[in-house]
């Protein structure tokens, strides 16, 4: 299935371009065993001309037929190629970036490929309850692997120490799995889902 790259996309987001759009589908909590709870999810990846994707995932507990029972959670964040900041980048705060993207051509982006033939990426995701995750990982074609470098928790947040996430594009569908180390337990299956693109 061909991937359409938006004409207004900054060059360094081209490796992430297959994520752009709206996704919906169903998943299971835990390892997906017969007694695991079901959920439905709506995910969006958008861009605004800056060198990152904006991410939002809204999730509801559901019955086994996919009917929503009640809200479960919302998470939001930013996905980008991992690279050293340059003079033309914006920030901190409202300090504007240069009008022309820092990485201006496909060749400049290609120079960022890692030894495995993919691109290093960073992802920050914020959750209700005072928790924010910082992931580092790799995108290689339509596959993403992420591991937390840091989990920041507020003073009243539940205990949570690490996570991994994987994403893949399979037959035009977005599949993901999330493993979590929390509540004194080692890394274990937390949730997984199968999402289709919303036209």
From TrEMBL:
**Reaction(s) catalysed (UniProt annotation):** peroxynitrite = nitrate
Stretches assigned to the THAP4-like heme-binding domain: 12-197
List cofactor names only: heme b
Motif GXWXGXG covers: 21-27
The answer to whether keyword NAD applies is no
Kindly state which keywords UniProt assigns to this record, in alphabetical order: Heme, Iron, Isomerase, Metal-binding
Q: Which domain of life is it from?
A: Bacteria
Cofactor binding mode and count: Binds 1 heme b group per subunit, that coordinates a highly solvent-exposed Fe(III) atom.
Q: In which pathway does it act?
A: Nitrogen metabolism
Q: Does the keyword RNA-binding apply?
A: no
* EC number, UniProt record: 5.99.-.-
Q: Where is heme b bound in this sequence?
A: 158, 190
This protein's domain notes: Forms a 10-stranded antiparallel beta-barrel structure able to accommodate a hydrophobic ligand in its interior. In fact, this fold hosts the heme group, which is located in a wide surface cleft.
Q: State its role.
A: Heme-binding protein able to scavenge peroxynitrite and to protect free L-tyrosine against peroxynitrite-mediated nitration, by acting as a peroxynitrite isomerase that converts peroxynitrite to nitrate. Therefore, this protein likely plays a role in peroxynitrite sensing and in the detoxification of reactive nitrogen and oxygen species (RNS and ROS, respectively). Is able to bind nitric oxide (NO) in vitro, but may act as a sensor of peroxynitrite levels in vivo.
HAMAP family to which the protein is assigned, alphabetical: nitrobindin
Which family would the database say this protein is a member of? Belongs to the nitrobindin family.
Under which name does UniProt file this protein?
Answer: Peroxynitrite isomerase
Q: Which organism is it from?
A: Paenarthrobacter aromaticivorans
Q: Where is the organism placed in the taxonomic lineage, from the top?
A: Bacteria, Bacillati, Actinomycetota, Actinomycetes, Micrococcales
